[in-house]
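Support request, please re-run this one:
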Amino acid sequence: MGKINFLQKPVVVSVMGSPSINYGRKIAVSVDILALNEAIKKESQFVDRAMTEISKMVVGQKEMIEGIIMGLLTGGHVLLEGVPGLAKTLTISSVSKVISLHFQRIQFTPDLLPTDLIGTMIFNPKSGEFLPKKGPIFTNIVLADEINRAPAKVQSALLEAMAEKQVTIGDTSYVLEKPFLVLATQNPLEQEGTYPLPEAQMDRFMFKILVTYPKKEEELQILNKMATDQIPKLTTVISREDLLRAQERADMVYVDEKVKNYIVDIVMTSREPGQYGMSSLVPLLKYGGSPRATISLIRAAKAHAFIRARGYVTAEDVKSVAYSSLRHRLLLTYEAEAENITADDVIKEILNHVEVP
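Re-run finished. Output below.
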């Protein structure tokens, strides 16, 4: 199916019975949404197969796995924060095998140089010319392990790749192959020898996902699965070309104007809570979400609808991705930190306050 041409005259289509929205509610959509919905159901079938394959290696951590898949569908970078041993690296490598993508792991350290990341110019004595030697960033999925351990020059080199999807070596800029995704990890406990990421770089991440400890029953599954030397074999469920097509389909997911206004209201409330009837948040918020937060919210909501095999976005999709899309973009005041108020607490208050369409 080619590009969807939405008709000017909408028709009312009942969506009663959908588990993702309020029962009994109806929305006005174009008749083409029905065809789009069927196309999304077909294209999104690989998601369930991918989740099944990844579960052979990784127990639980559904939010992290879905976040990485949504990042792949949107081209958005993902920051994973959690203590060591929670299968962050294992999950990323498993995703790259299941989706047949090139994967490079880079251990960030204080002595890392930009050339260790992007490459450098090498002199060829035979030709008498300097030729580019490309670094490990020339891949599809980059695992920036413990990203906050590298100094500013390395972060600057990485930021060009994240923002522009290109790398400059010498006088030449090289466009990175699609899809390109930076999956970064950081340890929230150990802060010795670390460099806090600047807000401009944090804003480039679509998601910040908090990776937590597994539950007791999941811990038992991990024990039974990993106590042997037998490593499960993963099967590829989708090719790189099919993933690129799935990205196009995910971008075509329909978003109603009311849902768009809902997203804008959420971000605007984080910037100017006093003007949106939330004066209690004024002393807690120093800075709210940028316009990139708005863009990330709508793209993430589309991806969330896609992996749920739906061709349209609901308010529940927006709520589901709001925490991971906004928590690293809100800058809290000292008063909030003194009261142990987190960004998630603020986001929860905003979502409870902003009227749902």
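The first strand starts at residue 11 and ends at 14. Residues 1-31 have pLDDT under 50 and may be disordered.
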